[in-house]
């Protein structure tokens, strides 16, 4: 599909999607997908959109203002890489918390998943613990693995800490050190950020962990995950709306 057809197809999807109606109702609006470079040159870029494929600019001719609707799409890895999406959740922050993650191959095939209860803790604790346990579980179940892993998290703090851009606090520092030691055993690894809307499979597993008495490893996807895995496999766009 050429770029013009792709934009036309996206336009139909946008107008047919009820999630956009609160933004479009009452406005003479023209949705337009802009490549990131072009959006940045027009002054619409901010630090939260650097990892996105595109942005939707809705220009209101009545008010002269515009809305930004970010689009996030989960992408499979490329052979021979394995991809880990990981997340943490806390109700109360601190409060009841859980972590979870899912491993998939370059064809978006489910390889392994896990959920764990992280007791009464902060979201930050759950995020870092989830990453540590994800890598550890992979080596426990694949002791001879010598390939490469692409990690994706919706926590910028986790991503920047593992990259060495910021320092870990004392509570999560042991998880960071153990994670880095395990990553050193891999042929290659990388970690990138994705918005929560594109990380829903891991988000669901982290939420499942809240209600589990102990860590659970899934060699087949739980029923509650099927919808999110299917959307990811088909690269269905997920959208991040402006905060009201």
TrEMBL record:
InterPro entries cross-referenced by the UniProt entry: RNase_H-like (IPR053151), RNase_H-like_dom_plant (IPR044730), RNaseH-like_sf (IPR012337), RNaseH_domain (IPR002156), RNaseH_sf (IPR036397)
Record GO terms (molecular function): nucleic acid binding; RNA-DNA hybrid ribonuclease activity
Organism of origin: Acorus calamus (Sweet flag)
Domain RNase H type-1: 78-211
Protein name, entry field: RNase H type-1 domain-containing protein
